[in-house]
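Dear colleague,

As promised, here are the two records you asked about, laid out in our usual form so they can be pasted straight into your sheet.

NAME FIELD: protein one
SEQUENCE, THEN STRUCTURE:
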Amino acid sequence: MATIYTESNLRLAQGNEKYRATIIAAASKYTLTPQSIAAMIGAEATSDPDGTWRADSNEDHPKKAQGLAQFFPDAWTAVFKYPPSLLCQDCKSMSEEEWMSKRLEAKYAIDGAGAYAALNLRQFASDSGWDVESLAPEDKAKLAYMLHHEGVRGTTRLLMGRPDQYTAEQAAERLAKQLKSVEKANQLVLQHHGKAVEAYKSWFFSYIDTKIDVNFFTVQDKQEFAKPPRNMAEIVEGLGGGTRPAHPQPRPEPAASNGKPASSSTAMSRAVSATGSAWFDPLEICTLRTAHLKSKGAAEFGMTRNLGTRAHQGIDLAAEPGTPIRAVANGIVYMAPVTANSDYAYGNTLVLEVGINDLPPAQAKIFKTVNPGRETIGFFYAHLSEFQYPIDRDSQGNILPVTVHAGDPIGKTGCTGNAKGMNNILLGAHLHFEVRQEAKKRCIGLANRVDPLPFIVICTNH
């Protein structure tokens, strides 16, 4: 039984075991890995609550995307015309209605997913001149998903600016459509200094990295997961495109007249007058943690632990140790390192105190709702491995705060405190992120805390 359920090192939900042989065959045929094929199907398929993929998805709507791989008619037609595909080989003599219905048959859908990936990768390699064949299979899976999503022409437009570059208006429109919110799209564009094309590219790369999780379909082994797979930006940059999304660069730290970091409300006002209010999510990619939890809901805020009997005071965002964390807004950072033998559950922490006038309208509106009557709010980061700034102390030994700007790197994630041993995402590595009504006040339970998720612009799985 162990051999059957781990064949080709492929991890599947029990209800998807019936697809194992077909996935392995398609992977071999199209020079991918079974994990890559499974990841592409997993990104598209409609699933039952137990994780079983539904081969009959949209059965009554032939003009919509159907089946395991969610093929639209045009894409399925391309598969039908591709000679190596099982659909082309078996269904040449059928009517269009008959072979179009094969989208709902698992063996054709799975083989079609591999065929369509191979077809798009070959066409993109020809159009771009990039050495796609040099990519590792898991990298090919991510690029293939991008091609499936944008089409070959759309991908070359986005990555290479040809045959014509996306305009700012087109990119902003696509971003708003994907996020289902003009307001969120505008915030993301603001984070990229008004560059809508870079904002769309950054969102899209993050989306692909979340959707195509090859590790999830690999039988877990600590050695296998010692090194995480490359992200989409690294893949594209490695191909020679030089198209890594542009992320805002940190600005110089403002200082008081005595040369020490400023630590008063006037320092915050000075930062605002110089840069304006802005918001940056705490991580470049925010994804609720699922590893070593019963469900994603256990990573959310509220009475979400121990079957609803224990409070979770913030949200857990999946992050490999050493991932940079960012100041969500202009404010003052108060750092709290722990000693080597400390049993403090949060480990190394910092809190960023932010004034209401330092937040853009969307977050300021939330602030007023959850923190009425106050002028400041706190954003708390836990389990850190290091701080961006040196620990300076005053004459009484108190750690001096540091004034920062929105988007500045302020530290790195880690596995300190009760996150000890969580040294990669699959073992539960994460940033614990809270919003505290009074920034520096410590309380038990949910007192002094509010849900951080409404403040986040983009959480990939919420």
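NAME FIELD: protein two
SEQUENCE, THEN STRUCTURE:
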Amino acid sequence: MVHEGLKKVLNGIATAAQAAGREAQDITLIAVSKTFEGPEIIPVIEAGQRIFGENRVQEAKSKWPALRMRWPEVELHLIGPLQSNKAAEAVQLFDAIHTVDRPKIAEAIAKEMKKQGKSLQLFVQVNTGREPQKAGIDPDEADSFLKTCREIHGLEVEGLMCIPPADEDPAPHFALLADIAERNGLKGLSMGMSGDYAAAIAGGATHVRVGSAIFGSR
């Protein structure tokens, strides 16, 4: 079954990967299904997509358990801010969290993973543009925060995530994230959305988070 939006994005990823001298299979597409309901998500699952991203724990909880009964192999990634009081539900529901951004969250996730006997893929969110309204650790504090995650909370961090400022060239932000990841021995780079995933792939993205280019405008 062909889904035009998904097909177009997968082709775009393949083209961007080739231009960057990379393999398309080294880039994970996260289809961002926030604000879309089950009937709109099902055609994308039926077309073969298996990794989805949600912004809010409550919204994901309302639609994904039923979908995963039918498609248990689907992977769910939390790509929006997490409150510590939602950590238990987040660890139960998601396979990956891209928004670890402060000690309190790191501690809550570590505690819940231990309690639930579950290991999640974890990404630290870096606020590369130092925007006050955005979540994420300051780039200057990223190294010490990663050390805290690893040494104090025993977390295995897979990579870093960023959302560049909307009105700036994203390339320097992607480069900054890649630099922080490299010096901390991290391979995962969650960066790039519908409008800039090609630039993110050129900058080394391992995960791109694409919503509107697949599902249409919200």
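A couple of things worth noting about protein two: Strands lie at 28-32, 51-54, 75-78, 96-100, 121-125, 157-161, 188-190, 207-210. The first strand starts at residue 28 and ends at 32.

Best,
R.
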